[in-house]
């Protein structure tokens, strides 16, 4: 019986160890000042996508601002964020794993609403509508899963239309009344086309043959769009292609001495535009999968690589360059490092001349940045 | 490799010196009775295991007979079970944080393999027909064993019942999660020459249970039901024993839902929780052995295994549709040669050969790159054992050769040649007290699995094996007083320092869906295991109460290397078993469940407490990834009635048990976002004649 007593004592001791400590309160500037939102994608199935805010006034990264501002939102943002965009005073987060589009008031980081979209990937806007690519289209005749673009009315927060495109559509961009969609075929049967959708009728009007496994799309505001292809992981390397939207034809490939820079794109926002320059991050592997990271600047007037945009050798501190963003006002370049996709990553700020200004620890797989100024508020 | 060879030569030399110096007498085995942990049929020369194992048998195992082997292993010290919740979830064992790939699982003495991913799902093995479960750190130190027995960093031996008399048992259990579990066991003995046994078990459960999550410190709060956790299992086994041989066949067929991690999602669209898995495992194995002379004994073992897995992600999930079929085959032979040179020196030479194949059908993209690998493994082990009055020493050297080929002529990983040494020492300072001090050093590795090397287009064929080095020092003190209240007490303590180098770690390449394996990891584990077992006997011989207590505690510090996810600093368990009532037959310590409990009209009460302290999930060691300790209290009460059939006068045992698991309805998870069930009950009725 003494043993039982001892056991009981042990039990009580252990029972007393379990205390739920409350999350420490975060000091938030309210309303938010100049800065940027950072989406940490989280681990797939880890339910740990988070939204941070970098406050320029205090030079501090406020971790997990969405969770702190919206404690009643079950499980925070949820699982696997894939895109982050600011539009008309609102912040839109595409939650791939949890399958919805989160709508947030950009000035306060308060939850406004959500739209359920299965397997969503990226978002673009035109007026009061958002367009979201989704891997979850109808099953095609050959048994593969088709993709589509969902049209969302942002006032009603309701899906109003859908348009079938290629398999596993990823990035997209609006130019005038046309929507350009990068079809990836990332589930196995690679696609190599960009779908063009006429926004007035919301129908696919053309497919432009580009390269296999297309990824991100960015418009330069001057009639050109830039598309990254992740290649077929075999003979066809990753590269960035240029389409002229006036003619909807492929015009060129960004290159170095006539060849694409040999990289793999890890994902994330792997390139960003700034004036007539483009910055691209990538990772090349040798036969033993030892990585070499690249940080390439392209001159868009010639389409040629002009060098490394990090000039102070601090690139050695980066494990896996993932997301990239440029601040048009200051010319600063932001690079996110996802490390091993499991540990907390970092976000790093580089000056226009390529020297490190600061680096700060973020969440898991930081990948997407949206700049904010109070003028953007509704 | 050269270093390993030098080390071995040195070890042999040391053993030689010690031999000539010490008194040449074997010391007596002090344990009252040894529990069988192997299927060994050979009347082998008694080569003592010089380092004791953690063993569960008898009452404590019988209490768990409707559970899986994983539930028994949870009670050992130094062990973490990775449990994804529910009846159908994968359950793997990690010993001393070396990684579950480093634990060898032996079923009736022969290794259970999985060349595809190297991990054996312990949920597949039921305790229904199991007599003992034993865990060895390093290796089992009985040198009369196959080369495979020397080849893992820790070894779990599951030993099934061997008939001792004619017997028939039927059992049915039902309870929470719409569980129905039925089994029959028939055993027949034909004199001393032959015995047979057959066992069939069917399990069906919906796997549904409520779970609850809330925001720490207030805020959101949600309760939901775990779905797609249904499991259907059919398991059938048959065994045949002769005087010098045995044959065993095993069949397992299951169909289950994979409930997946709980994530934020809209109830309107089913996402991750529609995955299904079908498994069909078959193996047949046999062993034959004999003591040819005083000097020489042998044992030959062989096995054939055929495993099939079908993993399905239906297109309706809106995620990547998958319908993958994996077919694995394994052929294994082993020859063990044992030489009892004299009464204090023995040697063993064993040679094993193994051939594994994996064929996969998983869609066009997968098959374009998949080499359909085949692996030939040859293992040779040489071991010397020395047993003196106060000192026992064993040293072994294992040689491993592996050669991979492709069924479709793809480039494969190059051949492997590795030497792995082990030294085990046990010292008994005095005859007057039963105290044994032990130490071992073991250097072993695991080969990269087929998945590590050849999975899809980011395959890394130049992976090196993952090496572990273990240093252990420990002591056990025992006291047996068969006729007193304090019938027995055993205290065991071990301190260890483990290193894992070239640890195979998954890193993403082109995107989050395509990962490759690299040798970038490194782990260092400093730990202690403490276990105390005690038996108290109260009351008179005719009407007594027995109290068995087992306490185990593990401390681990993994801060020296890369973070080891889910490795708690503190963990432990307490098991208390009470039996009371009128008894007859054998008194005192009853060991070996073959010594069928002769208790009549007896009650028993079993309580177990399992504690796992704070630990970090996969990722950075930050407060966001820190998981709270969890602990559960399980209680089982059973009543046994010994009846007698009027016609034949043969005994009929009837047994009723009621289990209440997680009695305080603790909300916990072993793996983040895989909630475990709250309070659940099970009623078991068993009849044996």
CATH superfamily of chain B: TonB-dependent receptor, beta-barrel domain
Radius of gyration of chain B: 25 Å
User: Helical stretch count of chain B?
Assistant: 5
Which bin fits the share of residues in helices of chain B?
A: under 10%
Q: How widely separated are the two ends of chain B?
A: 57 Å
Q: Looking at the chains present, what oligomeric state does this protein adopt?
A: heterodimer
List the helices and strands and how they pair.
The complex is a heterodimer of chains A (378) and B (689).
Chain A: H1 2-15, E1 35-40, E2 50-55, E3 60-62, H2 65-69, E4 81-87, E5 90-95, E6 100-105, E7 110-116, E8 120-126, E9 129-134, E10 147-153, E11 158-165, E12 169-175, E13 178-183, E14 193-198, E15 203-209, E16 214-219, E17 224-229, E18 239-244, E19 249-253, E20 271-274, E21 277-285, E22 291-299, E23 304-308, E24 321-326, E25 333-337, E26 344-350, E27 356-364, E28 366-372
Chain B: H1 2-21, E1 54-57, H2 58-62, H3 69-73, E2 79-83, E3 91-95, E4 103-107, E5 110-112, E6 130-137, E7 154-160, E8 167-175, E9 179-190, E10 194-205, E11 209-214, E12 221-226, E13 231-241, E14 245-258, E15 275-291, E16 296-313, E17 322-340, E18 345-361, H4 364-369, E19 373-387, E20 391-406, E21 416-427, E22 434-446, H5 450-454, E23 466-480, E24 486-511, E25 514-539, E26 543-557, E27 570-582, E28 602-612, E29 615-616, E30 626-627, E31 630-644, E32 651-661, E33 680-688
Parallel strand pairs in B: 4-7
Antiparallel strand pairs in B: 1-6, 2-3, 4-5, 6-7, 8-9, 8-33, 9-10, 10-13, 11-12, 13-14, 14-15, 15-16, 16-17, 17-18, 18-19, 19-20, 20-21, 21-22, 22-23, 23-24, 24-25, 25-26, 26-27, 27-28, 28-31, 29-30, 31-32, 32-33
